[in-house]
Amino acid sequence: MVRYTKEHKQETRERIIATAGRRLKRNGIDGSGVATLMKDAGLTNGSLYAYFPSKDRLVAAAVADQMRAQHEKIAARAAPGRAGLEQIVRWYFSPEQRDNIEDGCPNAALLDEIARSTDPTRQAYTDGVLVLIDDFAARLAPRDPSSARLQALGLLGMLAGTLQLSRALTDRQLADRLLEHSKDLLAFFRESWVGGTGIGFTDTRINLNRADLSGLPPTLVSWGTYEVLAGEDAEFAARVEDAGIDTATVVVPGGQHSYVYGAGRIPETDAAIAQIGAWVREKTKI
After folding, report:
1. What are the residue boundaries of the structural domains of the chain, listed by start?
2. What is the C-alpha radius of gyration for the chain, rounded to an integer number of angstroms?
3. Please, which residues bridge with residue 251 across strands?
């Protein structure tokens, strides 16, 4: 009887996980039987149980490996900041990435089945998603990544859903146009808002975080920690300060978008309003 070293067993286990990940993305979780998964790794049917207690455990390990590999492949290699995020989006919406299912995104290939899978598989997927969206969030709001996690999660959902739709369409020309259009989705919305108005993209009326802020008067920026745009608020405050402007910030713990509506009822709101009022009086000499 042949006895294998621990290193050999670990290498075999890793090979099973890697080939299973490719097979699952191509045929689906339900469409990939144990015999096929083992054959892909060059092993017999019963070999599975020498490495995993069940197919479900193999699936969970394969999903975790696919999510890790995806992060290493795209997010970890992209340029820093939003420029890197644009690189990721453009790569993701390439026809090559869409058509190479085995080496492509596990989100688009397996998301619907993962939702119906065992808890270990869903947890493996969730852990991988959190790593990925934390990377996205750090690019969206480098000064306060936690504030951009929901935006990052929404971006991931948009990426996977668009790729799934492009793969499902039988009209190849339409599918390709969808990907090309989606690469410039933000530019499309921007043109819809300001196209033909004569207002430039860097105009302060469009986006203060892209504008030339030099020459502003003393500026106070206030937001609540539960504000959906808290990351942008923090980024703007930092940009104002970096521009050499006299800057103050008032951050309201637990405050939402229109936290001022809590005046007279919420102590934190009252304290913030008093602080803002004192600042305005001091700057205007009223």
Report:
1. 6-183, 214-284
2. 25
3. 223
pTM: 0.65
Q: pLDDT digit of tens for each residue in the chain (286 aa)?
A: 456 677 888 999 999 999 999 999 999 999 999 999 999 999 998 889 999 999 999 999 999 999 999 999 887 778 887 778 888 888 899 999 899 999 889 999 998 899 889 999 999 999 999 999 999 888 877 878 887 888 888 888 888 999 999 999 999 999 999 998 888 765 655 565 566 777 766 565 666 777 778 888 999 999 988 876 788 888 899 999 999 999 999 999 888 777 887 888 889 989 999 999 999 999 988 7
- Of the candidates 115, 227, 226, the residue with the CA atom closest to the CA atom of residue 160: 115
d(CA 114, CA 49): 22
159 contacts 91 by C-beta, under 8 angstroms: no
What does the alpha-carbon distance between residue 106 and residue 97 come to, in Å, rounded to a whole number?
11
Q: Which residue has the tokens 């191509």?
A: 26
Q: With b meaning 16 or more CB within 10 Å and e meaning fewer, what string describes 166-204?
A: beeeeeeeebeebbeebbeeeeeeeeeeeeeeeeeeeee
Would you state the CATH architecture of domain 6-183? Orthogonal Bundle (1.10)
